[in-house]
Each structure stands twice: as structure tokens, then as C-alpha cells.
Structure to design on (286 residues):
């Protein structure tokens, strides 16, 4: 009996709430730990970056204007959907990366927990970071955190899923829209997260996922004038100088978070770094 050929899946970019092929028409081969062909992934281009940032800017205003409670609901729904596909993601990690099932299950569980954790932060951020300022004058002065805007995320190669989630979750919780370049070595599960987000009430444009090569995507993304902040989680010293130079042109904030799961003492720091404090002064009568 003739053995049938396996049809390899061709993934798509997740841009503006839709799934799109790369404008360039190019794709890369995703391989497993043994070098075997597993799937095809789009090789993002400069035009794809521009489309992603445009979509993010379009979604940023609506997302920031949503109530903190609603943003928490959406993040919690994303966690629910991720949980529902957890075993599929565990099997993918075992097959593709040759990791132990227990380790893969722990990573997926940590990704779900991270989303739930930041979902709980959304309606508490204003109380923690904002407040009434004491002034020695007849004025009422108060400060409140606002979203920075569009955040570019350079996700680490590993862990591919948790590494992406722990960088996008605080950005989304703070009310920002995200354009993320996912793991270059293991891009499939991060793209699965895009498919999960597509059915998880995440508004169009709020989360955008790109695949491709950093040397082709860093310059158009980090140098884009409509990007307000950069999260560089690659851990690559050779890339840091390039990112800093690109960010300096438009005075972007660059965050390089310490390694960790993003839950605990470091959570508030990640959130605070992706917000701006708006202070208002109002005269009061005698």
C-alpha cells in the first residue's frame, strides 16, 4: 500500500485580528529537534511590520478606552482558551522540542497563570500607581496611569510560549496594543496562541504576531515612529545596541525585563514601565 504524503501546515501571521500570509510571499521551514520538516511559517517583511503597527495603532485607542474590568475579562478569556488547548500545546512541545511532558505541561500552566495574574491587575493598577498628590497650594492634584500606546515585543527564543506570554500580558493589561516578533527557533506554538486569541474576544489590532528573521524585522519595527515602547526579551547583547539606537531616534522607552515568569515582585515593574502618568491640577475655592 502506498504511504500517503503528510500535508504540512502553513501558518499565517496574526495581524489586525485576521490571519494573513506575508506580503512578501516568502516562508521559512519550521523543523523539530531532529531537523525534520514540521510546518511552514511566513517570513515577515517590512511591509508586514508596517501593516502590524497600523493595525495596532487602530486598536490601541479602543483598547485603552475600554474599562479596566473589561480588559481583565478579555485576558481571563484568553487564559481560559489557552487552558482548553493546553494538552495540544504540551504534545506539540514534546514532539517538536523533545522536552519532557512534565516540563512542557508546567510551561503551559505557567503561561495560563500569567494571563490570569495580569487579568487581575487591570482594575487595580490605577489605585496602585495613581492617587491624589499633596500640594501646598489651593489646588487639587491627582495622577492616573495611562497606556503608553503601541508596544513592540521581541520575544525570546525559549521558552517559546511562556516567553511570549510573560511579555505581552503586562502590556495588554496596562491597555497597550502589541506587535510581537515571536520565537525564531520555535515559532509554531506562539502562532497557535494567535489562533487562540482570534476566538478569545481580543479586539482586532490589540495583539499582532509576526514571524521571521530578526535582522530583517528589528529595524522597521523598533524604528517605526508609531511605536511608543519596546520590550527586548531576546537577551542578545549584540542586538541591544541596535535596538537602543533605533529607539533613541524617536525617544522610545526600552524595557529589558529580568528572566522569570512575570508573576510576583516583578509584575508591577513590568506594568509601570508600560504606562504614562497623567497629572491634572484643579483650583479649589477658599
Amino acid at each position: 500500500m502506498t504511504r500517503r504524503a503528510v500535508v504540512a501546515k502553513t501558518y499565517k501571521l496574526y495581524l489586525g485580528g485576521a490571519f494573513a500570509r506575508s506580503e512578501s510571499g516568502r516562508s521559512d521551514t519550521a523543523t523539530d529537534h531532529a531537523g525534520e520538516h514540521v510546518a511552514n511559517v511566513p517570513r515577515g517583511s517590512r511591509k508586514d511590520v508596517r501593516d502590524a503597527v497600523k493595525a495596532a495603532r487602530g486598536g490601541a485607542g479602543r483598547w485603552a478606552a475600554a474599562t479596566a474590568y473589561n480588559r481583565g475579562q478579555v485576558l481571563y478569556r484568553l487564559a481560559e482558551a489557552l487552558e482548553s488547548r493546553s494538552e495540544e500545546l504540551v504534545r506539540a512541545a514534546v514532539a517538536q522540542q523533545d522536552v519532557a511532558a512534565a516540563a512542557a505541561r508546567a510551561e503551559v500552566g505557567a503561561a495560563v497563570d500569567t494571563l490570569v495574574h495580569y487579568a487581575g491587575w487591570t482594575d487595580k493598577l490605577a489605585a496602585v500607581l495613581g492617587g491624589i498628590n499633596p500640594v501646598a497650594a489651593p489646588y487639587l492634584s491627582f495622577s492616573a496611569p495611562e497606556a503608553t500606546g503601541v508596544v513592540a515585543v521581541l520575544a525570546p527564543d525559549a521558552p517559546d510560549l511562556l516567553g511570549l506570554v510573560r511579555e505581552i500580558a503586562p502590556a495588554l493589561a496596562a491597555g497597550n496594543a502589541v506587535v510581537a516578533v515571536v520565537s525564531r527557533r520555535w515559532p509554531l506554538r506562539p502562532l497557535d496562541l494567535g489562533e487562540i486569541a482570534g476566538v478569545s474576544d481580543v479586539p482586532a489590532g490589540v495583539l499582532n504576531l509576526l514571524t521571521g528573521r530578526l535582522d530583517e524585522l528589528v529595524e522597521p519595527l523598533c524604528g517605526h515612529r508609531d511605536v511608543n515602547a519596546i520590550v527586548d526579551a531576546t537577551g542578545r547583547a549584540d542586538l541591544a545596541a541596535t535596538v537602543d539606537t533605533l529607539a533613541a531616534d524617536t525617544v522610545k522607552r526600552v524595557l529589558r525585563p529580568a528572566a522569570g515568569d512575570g508573576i510576583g515582585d516583578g509584575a508591577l515593574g513590568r506594568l509601570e514601565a508600560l504606562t504614562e502618568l497623567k497629572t491634572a491640577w484643579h483650583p479649589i475655592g477658599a
